[in-house]
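Aim 2 progress update. The chain analyzed this quarter is reproduced below.
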Amino acid sequence: MRNLFALLCGALGGAGLVVSGMTSTVKIQGWLDFTGSWNPTLGFVLAGALIPMMVAWRLARVQNVAALGEPIPRHPHQRIEANLVIGSIVFGVGWGLVGLCPGPAIASIAFGGVEGLVFLAAMALGMVLAPRFRLRLENRWQVVS
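Predicted structure tokens:
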């Protein structure tokens, strides 16, 4: 039942990404182009994603288990650390250059063509290499500081 529910939620989320234009690299780059021909329409998409999530977190505070009986994890700590800042910068640069992030990239598999597959392969390689790269950086920072 859990896998079926995950499949349905993923399909609904993917359809939402397609309908909202989040899989359009041109639209994403227009959203991020503040100094050129800025396209503010994705602001509504982002707000439309944040509002239900805020409601969900409020409901999760008063419940201990989800609809399928799984325990609801507590809200994570909200500390801003180097990993968060560096990860956000790398994510933003990649999003701005390519116009895709992981969710929309996966949703665009059906129509992304060769470029979409190259992006997905590069993203997968980055996910494999990132933990090794992170360990090297952490070891260097500990020695220096």
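The CA atoms of residues 14 and 107 lie 5 Å apart. The mean pLDDT is 82. These observations will guide the mutagenesis experiments scheduled for the next reporting period.
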